[in-house]
Each structure stands twice: as C-alpha cells, then as structure tokens.
User: Fold endo-polygalacturonase from Capsicum annuum.
Amino acid sequence: MSIQKIILLIILFVLSISTCRSNNLEEFGHDCQAYPSYLESFIEGNNIQNEISHYFNNIKMVENKVKLIDVSSFGAKGDGNTDDTRAFKQAWQDACSSNTPVNFVVQQNKNYLLKNIHFLGPCKSFISMQIFGTLEASDNMSDYNNDRRHWILFENVENLVVGGGGTINGNGNIWWQNSCKINKNLPCKDTPTALTFYNCNKLKVKNLKIKNAQQIHVSFETCTNVEASNLMINSPENSPNTDGIHVANTHNIQISSATIGTGDDCISITSGSQKVHATDITCGPGHGISIGSLGSGNSEAHVSDINVYGAKFYGTTNGLRIKTWQGGSGSASNIKFQHIDMEGVENPIIIDQNYCDQNDPCKDQQLK
Ligand SMILES: *[C@@H]1O[C@H](CO)[C@@H](O)[C@H](O)[C@H]1NC(C)=O
Assistant:
C-alpha cells in the first residue's frame, strides 16, 4: 500500500471555464443564457429529474383529500420569543399519523422560536411542509444538550416536500464565537446542523432561505432520490464550518439553482455518495465545491458519478476541490465539472491528498 492509499480515479474531469458574462447576475444566478437547452439533454440523459418527479406526481391525484395542519392551531405563537417547539412536535405527530396527504403550514409573517426538533418517520402519507414564515433557532446552547448535532432533523420520512419560500434562521452567532476554530483555547465540540435529512427517500426541498446556521446549513445523509432546488444560503464569510449543502452517503440527488455565500464549502460531497448532480450553482464567499474530505481516521471512502454542470464562483478560496486525508483508502470516480465560471478564486482547481483539518498537525505516514 502506498502512503496515499486513497486512489483518485478521476475517469473524467472536464473543466470548461465558460465565457458567460456575469454583468446581469440575478438573485438566483440565471445569467447564462445557454443553460436551459444544455440542461434538458443533460438531465434527460441521466434521467434523474424524471426519476424523482415521478414519485411526486401521485400527490396531485389526491389533492382534494389533503389534510391541512397549521402549527398555530397547536398553540404555536410565532412571536419570536415564545418557545414553539412543543406545538411543532404535536403538529408533526398529527401530520405523520394522517392517512391522507398533509399540507403542514407555517404561516407567513411569523417567527417561530424552536429548540432542536426531531421530525421522525415513517409517516403514513405524503407530507408537504410549507414554511412561509420564519423558523428561528434558540440561541441558548444548553437547549441542545440532548443532541448537539442537530437543530431541525427529519429522519426516516418518505414522500416529503419541504418548501414555501420562508426562512430558516440558525441564529448561529453564539456557536461561532464558541467554536474552537475561532477561539483556539476552547475544546472542539459538536455543533448543530441547521437542517438535516437523515434516511429520507423521495424528498424535495425547494424555495427556502437558510441563513446563519450554527454549523452546516442543509445536510442530506443516507438519503435517496432527492431534489433540492431554489435554495438561498447565507452566512458570513468568517463563520466557521458553515457548509452550505452537505451530501453524505446519499444516492441520486439533483441540486439546482442554489445561491450560496458562506464561511466553508458551498457544497461538500462525502463518502458513500453516488449520482450527485448539481446545476446552476452560485458560490461566494465560501470554500467552493468539495468532494470530501474523504478518508479521515484511516477510513475507507467511495464517491462516484458527480456532475457539476453550470456553477459560478465569486471570490471563493477554492473552486473545485477534492480533498483526502492520509491513511484513508477508497476512490473518487467519474467526476465531471462542466461550464464553470470563476472570478477572484484563489485555488480554481485543487486536489489535496494531504488534507488535515485538526488542531494537531497530521504526521506524514510511511509506506507500509
Ligand atoms: C438556557 O436553557 C437552560 C436549560 O434548557 C435553562 O435552564 C436556562 O435558564 C436557559 N438560559 C436562558 C438565559 O434562558
């Protein structure tokens, strides 16, 4: 075995710096006029969009039987001060046990203060959660003593749509100040991900603003058949470990129209992920789109079939990155980056096989 046991099998690594001009950048970054026609054939060719959409077509057929669940009728105040966690939990129980499809509504012009909350499945029917207003995280760190790794967690849910155009505010300032990355005297401790989907299948997450996450903004872990679209993600450039979209051990995910400005990776794709397609991504500030890190703690990691088609980077530290730790093993294969536009990017393409993200220096490992 070699020092670098991670073997990067980049079968196809296509990079074309597009000449598309950025002078008419809109909020969601649709300024490349060439996208749609390319995109269609790209998606058709891979059939992912169709595969995922297929699951949701059934919803329309039963539309007239939809059960409306409004969190305010469970006592949620939405005044920004009252802890509404209990009301949300009760509303979810009702939603999850419904035999007919559910429209779970979070009203507009309200600000619901929430401690960490676990939306646990399996549920009996389709659930569409429409967040029109704002969900705001409690910034009392001891509220997370029961689970310091998640704020809002959806687990084991199938046929779920989360959208509505509202805002998810992680209120992360207190976590950033207490991060070991910011204050080297503090121990490194778990910090919540704002929005986590764990073991979800047939999932759509669309039209949401997610800001000031405690750590990662949105994480898809061990999910299948996911469509994530029209997401606006925003945290300060100096906020620590605030990845925009994190994809771990997830198969068949289409990320489209995401505008991400943050303190860490705009998108990170880690071990066990397959068929990850990202289109129309705007990134900056941030650390770019990363495959990895892979292979930490001598682990075996595999990622394959990653397509990034149409991404713009503005003032990011990195553009396209693959990062692996010494001592790990595995592969990163069939990775394509196409139609990439960069401005003011420090490391446009970086393959780092000596990645080290810890306080103690990583010692060089010897050939065995
Ligand atoms: C923070 O939460 C803990 C336990 O959840 C509680 O005892 C404490 O009073 C809270 N602190 C503030 C400032 O609200």
Q: What stands out?
A: The first helix runs from residue 35 to 46. The pocket of 2-acetamido-2-deoxy-beta-D-glucopyranose is lined by residues 140, 142-143 (CB under 6 Å).
